[in-house]
Design goal:
Strand content: 15-25%
Strand order of the largest sheet: 1-4-3-2-7-8-14
Order of helices and strands: EEEEEEHEHHEHEEEHHHHHHEHEHE
Number of helices: 12
Shape: globular
Radius of gyration: 21 Å
Low-confidence stretches: none
Oligomer: single chain
């Protein structure tokens, strides 16, 4: 817990910004004039049930955080809330149905924006500008806008998509390790050695992967090993990362505006793997999107939620609305 600025002045328009994902909740309160004032975090992820992301469990976690944050920041009333949630586009029915009224009832908030984490990642990276963002970690999604509508590509999970993601790279590397173990073509002895160091003898690998509820994370844990083998010159590992780069560029090209000079940014932990992935990705993006300008991401998804909250509170939001991606509603009732 830390104060990001001094306490709010009386009468300032105040907001709440939230980032909800697999690692828990992060929440910020602030004002339009002074920006973020206080931050708190919870390591407990919001539950997902039959109706998707559980609005009741979300509020159970959030309300104590909001009370502590407003007291710390000296805020007496919140005008606006922006909630960026992983899975909102496909699992957001319960949030859409219950969260705006609950935030009004418990926190006095009258205007609520519910956003997919891809939208807050985009806004954190580029702000309200035309372009495309590749958000890559265990999973992968590309999102773009020309400021009239949103376009998304991939983000379909490790069984049906997330092509080029950490889980995809890790799975491809482990397949190459198993091929080497079997003596089949396409195998890699360095990847086999790396896999055995991490998981033990290969015959035991399926038992370590298939029963796990966190299979994507287990697969993604091997992605740094693939990058290390590529850095050492293993051609199979190099090929895997080149293929991942092509998949990423495909997704970016599918969502990037075709006119003007859109910006393209990368965000997410996967890009910490370094040159083994970034060099081929730069080459693929240059090939697929010659009209776009590569820029460094300005901030993360929580900073994106803060930006949306400040703009919405000030009546200056220019990002397009979308029921599945950026849903803005005025709460009903007193």
């Amino acid at each position: 817990m830390s104060r990001l600025d001094g306490p709010a002045a009386a009468g300032e328009s105040a907001f709440l910004a939230v980032d909800s994902g697999g690692s828990g909740l992060r929440a910020v309160v602030g004002t339009v004039a002074r920006g973020p004032l206080a931050l708190r975090e919870s390591a407990e992820p919001v539950r997902t049930g039959a109706r998707g992301i559980d609005a009741g469990h979300f509020m159970q976690q959030l309300v104590p955080m909001v009370r502590a944050l407003t007291a710390e920041a000296g805020i007496t009333a919140l005008d606006t809330a922006v909630v960026g949630a992983a899975g909102f586009s496909t699992l957001g029915d319960d949030l859409r149905a219950g969260l705006p009224a609950a935030l009004h009832r418990e926190c006095g908030i009258r205007t609520v924006a519910l956003a997919a984490d891809a939208v807050t990642a985009y806004t954190g990276a580029l702000g309200p500008r035309p372009g495309a963002v590749i958000a890559a970690g265990t999973g992968l999604i590309a999102i773009g806008t020309d400021l009239t509508r949103w376009r998304r590509a991939d983000g379909w999970g490790h069984l049906l998509g997330d092509c080029g993601s950490g889980a995809w790279i890790g799975r491809a590397g482990l397949e190459a390790a198993l091929r080497a173990h079997d003596g089949r073509e396409g195998g890699s002895a360095p990847l086999l050695e790396c896999a055995e160091e991490m998981f033990g003898p290969m015959p035991g690998l399926p038992a370590q992967v298939y029963p796990r509820s966190d299979r994507p994370a287990v697969l993604a844990s091997f992605a740094p090993g693939v990058a290390a083998c590529a850095d050492d010159g293993d051609p199979v590992a190099v090929h895997v990362l080149r293929a991942a780069a092509r998949h990423m560029a495909d997704s970016a090209a599918a969502v990037c505006p075709t006119k003007g000079e859109p910006q393209v940014a990368l965000t997410g932990g996967l890009f910490k793997m370094g040159a083994a992935l970034l060099v081929p990705l730069d080459e693929e993006l240059t090939k697929r999107l010659p009209h776009a300008r590569r820029v460094a991401a300005e901030g993360d998804p929580l900073q994106g939620a803060v930006r949306i909250a400040a703009d919405l509170t000030a009546g200056a939001l220019t990002l397009p609305g979308d029921d599945k991606l950026l849903y803005v509603v005025a709460a009903q009732g007193d």
